[in-house]
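Hi both,

Apologies for the delay on this - the queue was longer than expected. I finally got the pyridoxal-5'-phosphate-bound model through. Below you'll find the protein sequence and the ligand SMILES exactly as submitted, and right after that the structure tokens for the full complex including the ligand.
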Amino acid sequence: MNYLELGKQALSSALAEQTEKYRQYCTEGLNLNLSRGKPCPEQLDLSLPMLEITAWKDKDGTDCRNYGGTYGLDRMRRFWSEVTGLPFENIIVGGNSSLNMMFDTVSRFMLFGTANSEKPWCREEKLKFLCPAPGYDRHFRVTQQFGFELVTVPMTAEGPDMNVVEELVKDPAVKGIWCVPKYSNPTGITYSDEVVRRMARMKTAAPDFVVMWDNAYAVHDFVEEGDHLLDIFAEAKQCGTEDRIFYFSSTSKITFPGAGVAMMAASDRNLKYIAPVISAQTIGPDKLNQLRHLLFLPDVAALKEQMKRHAALIAPRFEILLSALSRELAGTGIASWTEPNGGYFVSLDVLPGCAKRVWELCRDAGVVLTEAGATFPYGVDPQDTNLRLAPTFCSPEDLGTAAEILCCAVKLAALEKLLER
Ligand SMILES: Cc1ncc(COP(=O)(O)O)c(C=O)c1O
């Protein structure tokens, strides 16, 4: 039934039916949560054997209990090189959080500029940063914290709208762009080859423009043949723009979020430029944790096995959510959603002006969703349309119930809106 084609009377009776259903849900005293983009406890159990590892000496004799190794263990850098396909020399292994490395990176640009800056960013009169939206709220918050004007760029099924990006970067105040190029948070899409090429090739007015390439979900496929992402460094090298790329990833959703191993990669020139700053900042990261990770996941083959075990737990949860959306909302004309091959999220678009209402209705029926608006800069979705759904943390049973309530709320909010006209 396409709700957009219904007359007033049919809309009113559909509203009465959904209201009755919704009231029933509200009496059940539920406490369900679709807001947490976190692994479920069974996923965390997969890495428990790693905590049994008490080794402290690396193969090359490095005593991991002691200071040293500003860029992390060489073997860990090699591991990341194998995973990402990037040269070993361009990789720095950090602490437990890639978001922390991203914050530090922007903070260094503010204080010292990039290798290509004329002056530190904090001395610029105006600073702007491009935020593809729907996107990752924590990225936006980093640049908001440093006083950037956040400029929204629409996301398409292939990545940020590059026509818009190429126009915006003609402004010298635009210093960079946030990117989650594979299984993007929250849409789950992977950037097309064309988007990656244009990102590497585009002419920017700012000589120190940066692409914050957060490949957080590089290996997080839950289908046999995951999405393919073009190597942005290789593309950038071809046109001499490799200094603009800052690449990040971590094992947060491979082993333990908050207790994993993060990495960053940058061009030769950038690494040389930031080396003195990093060595002033730290004597080195937690090498014992890196060694534990290397013994638990010694190579890409072991990593792939670990990701298959994650996929076996995650894929059924996505299936429950997606089949509920399709069963309840397909053909209604009031919602559309993404169907990713990996990552942690599904992005749901409801009728304009309805996302906040859906969020409220869900809350009152005991289902917590990520706040409506959170996927846009400043937490404001101009169309009030987008909701980020995170199916991994709930048990399959709870997820089924939460998805039903969500669909009921989407219908209820749409019917209320359509009856206002
Ligand atoms: C796109 C993206 N980047 C980074 C992070 C956080 O990564 P880390 O735990 O390495 O700081 C998340 C967590 O949800 C994420 O979705």
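Main takeaway for now: Residues 3-43+304-420 form a domain with the Aspartate Aminotransferase, domain 1 fold (CATH 3.90.1150.10).

I'll put the files on the shared drive as well.

H.
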